Amino acid sequence: MNVDLNSVRTMDTAQVEQGIRRILEQSLGVEPDEATPGDYWEALSLLVREINLDRIRNTRREEKDGSVRRVYYLSLEFLVGRLLGNNLHNLGIYHQAEKATASFGVNLSDVLEYETDPALGNGGLGRLAACFLDSLTTLNVPAFGYGINYRFGLFKQGFVGGKQVESPDAWREDSFPWGIEKPKRKQVVRLYGQVREVDGKAYWDDTQEVLGVPWDLPVTGYNTERVNTLRLWEGRATEGFDLNSFDAGRYQDSRFREILAENISQVLYPNDSHPEGKELRLIQQYFFVACSLADLIARYKREHEGWEQFTSKVVIQLNDTHPAIAVPELLRILMDEEDFVFTKALEICRSVFCYTNHTLLPEALETWSQGLIARVLPRHMQLIYKINYHFLHNEVEKHWPGDHQMKNRLSIIEEPNNPAEPQMVRMAYLSVIGSHKVNGVAALHSSLVKQKLFPEFDELWPDKIVNVTNGVTPRRWLANCNPELAELIDSTLKSDWQSDLARLGELKVWADDPEFQKKFARIKRDNKVALASVIDELCGVKVNPDAIFDVQIKRLHEYKRQQLNLLHIMAVYRRLLEDPDLDVPHRVFIFAAKAAPGYLVAKNIIYAINRLADRVNNDRRIRDKLKVIFLPNYRVSLAEKIIPAADVSEQISTAGFEASGTGNMKLALNGALTIGTMDGANVEIAEEVGEENIFIFGKTVEEVSDLRQRGYNPRDIYQHNEELKAVIDWLASGDLSPDEPDAFRPLVESLLDSDYFLTLADYQSYSDAHDRIVKAWKAPSYWWRMAIINTASMGKFSSDRSIVDYCKTIWNIGL
Ligand code: 26M
C-alpha cells in the first residue's frame, strides 16, 4: 500500500514496567505489591490501548487524502478471541511485557488467562472474519469490520450428568478495556411504517426509530503501525418527547420502541446451520446494515465530493447472506435520498457488493417470508420486487427468451408449493444478483457452488462465481499459541515466516533430521503435558502425555460426524475388552464442541460421548490404553491450548458438506496429522502435504452422489459389518445410560433409518484409516517426518494469502 506504516517503534522493558506502574497507581488506584494478576491484566491492557489509540489517529491522518479503496467487511459475527497477548505480539513487546511483569513477581501467561473471550460468533464463519481483519491490517489494507456488539455472546456450555446445559455469557460485564464508545458517530435506524408514493417518489413514513451507537475495537496487525477498526453497533432507544407523553397510545409506542431498541443487540443467535425466521434476527440484520452503510457513506462524503468516485473507493464484502439486506438498503439510499434512477442505483450496488457463500446445506440457506419483510421493511420489500422484476424481465429474458420455468427457478421470490404457505425471499439469490463477485471458500466448495447451488447464475454470468480458499492467521495460530514451535522455526529458518508463511516450506529439508525431529517431538510433548493439566482441571481425568492425542474440535453437527468418531471409539474399547494385552499405543480421544440449543440429535451425540467417556475412563481392565475427553465450553482460548498439543486432527465430514474448514489448517500447521475425507479444504491440504502424509478415507463427492442414486440403505451395512452392528446394538441397548434406557434413540434412529450423512457407509474405511495411524505411530521417525512436513506445507493456508486473493480477484485492490 502506498502509505508507509511499516516502521514499528517498540518499547523497552523499563518503559513497559513504568507504564504498568503508572496505570496501576494512577488509574486503578492499587499499589504494585497489592495488585492481583487481574489488576496486572487490566493495567497492561490499558497501556496497550494507549498505544493503539495513538496509532489509530496516525492511521486516520494518513488516509485522509482518500486516495485508497477501503474494504468494508460486513459480518454478524467476529470471533476475535482474547486481545492482550495478540496485541503484545503485534506491537513487538511481548518479551518486554514478560520481563516487566516478572519484575513485579507475576507470570505473564497467568495474567493473560484473566481475559474473557469476546464470544461474538458461533464458529468458523465468525473466526474467519477475525483472521481476515488480522491479515487486512498486516497487509496494510485500509479496512473496517462492521458487526454487532452483542451483550450476550454465544452461550456458555456446561455438562450436567453429561448433557449440555447453556448459560448466558455476559462477556463484557467483566472489565473489557478494548472497546471505545463513539457516541458522535451514532445512527438512526427506521423500522416498520409504510410507503407513500407522491409523483413517482417514495416516502417511507410512520416508522419506529432506534439508535445505533458504535463501539470501536482497534485491530492491530503484525509488523505494521496501521490500526484498522472493528466497529460494532449497539441498539439504544432514541431520546425524545414520546417518553414523556401522557397519551396512552404514544406511551405504548415509545415503550415498544425502547424495548425493541434494547433487544436488538442483546443476543447472538446460536445457530450455525438452521436459520429460524425470527423477526428480531431480521431486525438485527437490517439494524447493523443500515448503521454501517450510513456510516461508510458519511465517511465517503467527508473525503469526496459527489458520488462519482464511490465505486472506486468503497468495496463491501457480505459475510454470507446475513447482511444481504444491504443490497436494497443501498438502493433505497441512492434512489430515495440521492435521487438516482433505478438502473444507475443498481449498477452502483453491483459494483460495490461482493458475497461470500459458506454453505451448501439446503436447510442453511436463508429465506425470509415476504410478509415479514413487508411489515418490518416495507420499502425494502418493494425494492426487492423491483430488482427481481428487472432481473427476470431484462436479464433472464434476454438469455433464455420466453423461458417461464427459468424465471420461476431464478426468481428472488420463491413461490410456495402449497398456496396456503407464504412466498419466501431467497437471500442468496438477492446476494448473487446484487453483487459483482460471489466466492466459495475452498476449491471444491466453489466448484460445487457453481455446479449445484447456482448453475444458472454461472451460465448467465460466467465470471461472477470465483474461489478464494480460506486461511488462518499464523500469528494467533502458531506464533502466539505455540511459542516453543515458533522459536524452533525462527532459529531454523532465520526468515520472517510470520509475514510470508510459504517460507515454512524451507523446513522440509529438516524432516528426516533426527535432531530436528527430536526437538519437534519434544515441543509437542511439552504442549501435551500442558493440555493434560487443563484436562485434569476441567474434567478431573488424568491422561498420559505419551498417548496419541486425537482431537475433533468444531461445532457439533451431524454432517461433521462426531458420531462416526464415537462409533469407532466404542469399537476400539470393545477390542481392548476382548484382549487387554492388545499391542496398541495409548490413545486419548479429545472432543470439544457446542451444539445449537435446539438441535436434539447433536445434543444426543454429546450425551453419548460423555456417557462413553465415563465408562471408559473408569474401566481398570483396559489399563489406561484408552481415554475419552469432552472438554466443556469450546471457544477460541481453549482452541489455543488444544491445537498445539494435537497429534491427530479429525476432519471427517461427509464429502460435499464442509465448505472449507479452518480448524483443519490450524491443526496441520501445528504438526497434527489429518484423518479426513476428501471434503472442503482437506482436498487442498492433501495436495500440499502429499497423500503419503495424510490419512484420507471415505467416499468422495462423486461416490456419495452415486450411492444416493443407487439408493442407500444403512441397514444393509449394519447387517453386514459385525463390529459396527455390535456397537450400534450396544448404543441402542441402554447399557450406557441405565437410568434412561431409551436415551440414545434419536441418534440410533437417525443412523439406522436414514443416515443422511452416510456415517455407516464410511465406517469401515474410517476404521481402517485409524489402523494406519496406529501403525505410523509405532514408527516414530516416520511419524515425526510426516508431522514436520505437515507444518512445512501449510504456507498456502495463511489468511494473508486469502486476503491477497480477495484483493486481486474480487476487490481490485493493488498491493
Ligand atoms: C443464520 C441464521 C440465523 C442464525 C444464525 C445463522 C448462521 C450463523 C453462522 C448460519 C451459519 C453460520 O455459520 C456457518 C459457518 O460457520 N460456516 C463455516 O464457515 C467456515 C468459514 O468459511 C467454513 O470453514 C466452514 O466449512 C463452514 O461450515
Automatic annotation (TrEMBL):
<keyword id="KW-0597">Phosphoprotein</keyword>
<dbReference type="InterPro" id="IPR000811">
    <property type="entry name" value="Glyco_trans_35"/>
</dbReference>
<feature type="modified residue" description="N6-(pyridoxal phosphate)lysine">
    <location>
        <position position="666"/>
    </location>
</feature>
<keyword id="KW-0808">Transferase</keyword>
<protein>
    <recommendedName>
        <fullName>Alpha-1,4 glucan phosphorylase</fullName>
        <ecNumber>2.4.1.1</ecNumber>
    </recommendedName>
</protein>
<comment type="similarity">
    <text>Belongs to the glycogen phosphorylase family.</text>
</comment>
<comment type="function">
    <text>Phosphorylase is an important allosteric enzyme in carbohydrate metabolism. Enzymes from different sources differ in their regulatory mechanisms and in their natural substrates. However, all known phosphorylases share catalytic and structural properties.</text>
</comment>
<dbReference type="InterPro" id="IPR035090">
    <property type="entry name" value="Pyridoxal_P_attach_site"/>
</dbReference>
<keyword id="KW-0663">Pyridoxal phosphate</keyword>
<comment type="function">
    <text>Allosteric enzyme that catalyzes the rate-limiting step in glycogen catabolism, the phosphorolytic cleavage of glycogen to produce glucose-1-phosphate, and plays a central role in maintaining cellular and organismal glucose homeostasis.</text>
</comment>
<keyword id="KW-0328">Glycosyltransferase</keyword>
<dbReference type="GO" id="GO:0030170">
    <property type="term" value="F:pyridoxal phosphate binding"/>
</dbReference>
<dbReference type="GO" id="GO:0005980">
    <property type="term" value="P:glycogen catabolic process"/>
</dbReference>
<dbReference type="GO" id="GO:0005737">
    <property type="term" value="C:cytoplasm"/>
</dbReference>
<dbReference type="GO" id="GO:0008184">
    <property type="term" value="F:glycogen phosphorylase activity"/>
</dbReference>
<dbReference type="InterPro" id="IPR011833">
    <property type="entry name" value="Glycg_phsphrylas"/>
</dbReference>
<keyword id="KW-0321">Glycogen metabolism</keyword>
<keyword id="KW-0119">Carbohydrate metabolism</keyword>
<dbReference type="Pfam" id="PF00343">
    <property type="entry name" value="Phosphorylase"/>
</dbReference>
